[in-house]
Each structure stands twice: as structure tokens, then as C-alpha cells.
Amino acid sequence: MALKTNCQTPDMVYSTHIDKNEINIHLNLPFNLNLSKEESVILEKNIHNVLEIVMSKYFLNFMA
Fold first, then answer.
1. What does the pLDDT read at residue 64?
2. Numbers of helices and strands, H then E, in the chain
3. Is the CB of residue 45 less than 8 Å from the CB of residue 35?
4. Considering the domain boundaries, does residue 58 fall inside one?
5. Residue 57 sits in which domain range?
6. Strands (E), the chain
């Protein structure tokens, strides 16, 4: 069961499609991001790290 938390991103719309070997996630923000190249790289790495944490449990049997 997923951990229930308070919303930290009001008005952001999350769209997720889960298939057998593919997951697509699309985020619609309620504002424009005005990021520098460096900030964009940091955001991308942070999203990657968070998704790795979430997905790691599904790799336990795969890597055994």
C-alpha cells in the first residue's frame, strides 16, 4: 500500500501510464519553470533519484 501523505504540490496534475515494461509519467505544473541549464540538470537528477528509490523494490527479484 502506498504511503498516505499531505499534498505538497497543489494544482499539479500527474498523469501516469503503467504497462508491462514501461512507465510514463507526465507532470503539468500550475506555473512556468524558469530554470537555468544548471538548475534543469539538478532537477532532472533529483527526479531520477526519487524514481530510483520508488522503483528499487521491483528490482530486488530481477537482480537476484
1. 67
2. 1, 2
3. no
4. yes
5. 34-64
6. 13-18, 23-28
